[in-house]
User: What shape does this take?
Amino acid sequence: MIHQPIDTDIRTIHLIGICGTGMGTLAAMLQEAGYLVRGSDENVYPPMSTFLASRNIQIKEGYRAENLAPPPDLVVVGNVIRRDNPEAVAAVEQNLDYCSMPQALHRFFLNSSQSVVAAGTHGKTTTAALLVWLLTVAGMDPGCLVGGLMANFQQSYLLGRGPYFVVEGDEYDTAFFDKGPKFLHYQPQICVLTSVEFDHADIFPDLQAVENAFAQLVTSIPPDGLLIANADDPGASRLSRKARCRLVTYGLQEPAQIRVEMAEYGVGTTRFNVSGPQGFEASFNSPLAGAHNLSNTLSMVSLAYELGLDPGTIQKTLTNFKGVRRRQEVRGEPDGVTVIDDYAHHPTAVQATLEALRPFYAGRRLWAIFEPRTNSSKRRVFQERYATVFDAADLVLIKEPPGLHSIAPEERLSAAQLVRDINERGVEAHYFPEVDTMLPFIMSGAKAGDVLLIMSTGSFDNLIERLLEELNKRPA
Assistant: This one.
C-alpha cells in the first residue's frame, strides 16, 4: 500500500542536499511511494551516492539555480543547506513550494499513521530499531525511518501498511528557516524517551537549552497519547513529569512500572527478569550487551506490554533481532582479533559501550580506539569527562580530532592532554595525530583473542577497512 499524501497534485520532488543520510533515505522512500525524485549535492561519494544511483535517482553535483529546471512541484531542503545556497535562493525567488526533511516526512508518511517517536541523547537508534522489529514480529507491518541500517531489513526505512510509523526523533535543528528540533515535526502519539543530557554544543549553549527542546517534545504528545520514559535517567525522569498524556516508566535501578528484577551479563548473552503492573512477570535472553542495551530493550518491553503482546512475542523479537549497523557491529575476526565498529561519541555512550563489552568478552584484552569527531566531542566541554570513561579498557588509542581549524583554539579538545589524563588513572593510553601512525601501532600489538572497539561517527579515515585488510594478510 502506498501512503496517500495530503497534496495529491505533487508529482516531482527535488531534494537539496540529497546525499545526507536522512535525505537520501527520504528520497528512496518518496520514490518507492510513487514520486519522481531527483536532487543535488556536493562532494558526492559512496555509500549514499551508489545507493541512490542503484535506485536510478538523478543527482546533480554542485548547487546551481539551473538544477531546479524544469521546476519541481516541491523542494525539500536539507539541514546542512545554508540560506545563501544558490538553489535555496532560487527556490524562494521562483516561489516554489519548499519544506524541510522532517516536514516532508510528516507530510507524506506520518499524517496517515500513528507516530511512534524514539527520542533521547543516547540509544534512540537501537531503541527505534527494536520497536520496529517488535511491531514486525507481532504482524503489525510498521512504517519507519531509523538513523541506521537495520540488519533485519538491510535498510533504514519501511513504508509499511500497518497503523504505526516509527521514527527516530533527532533533537538537532531542522533547516536554515526552522531552527527548532526535528522531532517537533513528528507529532508523536507514542514517544519513548531514553535520556536527556548535554550534547550538540554547536547549537545548544547549555543543558537547559537541551532540556527546553525535549520539554517541547514531551508536552506535544496529545492527552490521549503515551510517553514511555526511562526512570533511571535523571533528565528523562524529570521532564516526563511535564507530560499531558499517560506516562509509563521503565528502569533497571529506580522504581518503575516496568522494571528489571534480575540481570546477568555474561559471555555472548544477557539474561534478565522483568515485572510490571497487574502481575506481569517474564524472563528473557538477549543477544545485546550491556546495561544500556538492556535499558533500550526494556523500553521495547514496555511498548509490548502496552499493546497487549505476550512474552513469547517479546522473546521472539529479541532472539531474532540482528541489531543496527555501527552499533557494536562485529566487522570481522581475522587472525582471532575481533574488530567492532561502534558509533559511540558522547562520554556516557563511550563508557556504557566499554562497560557492556567487558563481560561480553570476558578474559580478553579490550582496546578502545576513539576518534572525537562530533561538534561536541571536538570541544573542551567534555575534556575532563572523557578522561574518566575509559576505565573498562585495557588499552586506549585516541586520534587527533579532524577539523579543529573551524573551532576557536581555546574551545578545542586536547587529545594529547586527554591521553595524559587517562594514563594518570592507570589505563595505558596513546595519542596519534593521524591514522597512518595509528594503524602500524595496532598491527604490531594486536594478537589473537584481542577485542578492538573502534568508535567514531565518521569513516575514521577507513581505519576498519584498512585494519581488516592488514589482519587478513597475516599468516594463519
Notes: The chain has a mean pLDDT of 90.
